[in-house]
Amino acid sequence: MKKIILLILVSCTTVFLFGQDQGTLSDADISFTFVSKKVNGTISGFSSSSKIDKNNISSSELNGSVDTKTLDSGNFLRNWSLKGGKYFDTDTYPTIHFKSTSIEELKVGFTVTGQLTIKGISKPITIAFQDEGNRLVGSTTLFSSDFGINIMKKSREANKVVVNMSFKVN
What we know:
By secondary structure, the chain is an alpha+beta fold. The protein has helices at 2-19, 76-83, and strands at residues 22-23, 25-34, 39-43, 47-48, 52-53, 63-67, 95-105, 110-118, 121-132, 135-143, 160-169.
């Protein structure tokens, strides 16, 4: 009888300890910098169906979206222009969506590769993440012109955007 009780306690403890490393994403802080114009901003309205397993990060799935109408560059007129049909067309394309296709664990952190969809255009992108306890902190670089958002007509490089994100792991 003592062995059975001990086995149950060990099993419950193991499930408790390892279960804490599995979760979902919430409480997102997402910011961006449009490099050539030195414009900083944020986007919110985050929702996610991600499944995070910190014990086996490569088996995790990152899947989420943000609401394009929450785009905020700190300037009302710029926001209005960006949300209009010429750029993000938020009435037609109300969300930006990301879905992971692979996750690779590194010595420090991990990378997530997946499909980013903006304005109905899907492109592969890789995000570098660090595990900071109950938060995942990541960064990536993209080019708005790849998604039909040509703010600067000079070159692709002139449309460079650095995106930083931080998610709470529940």
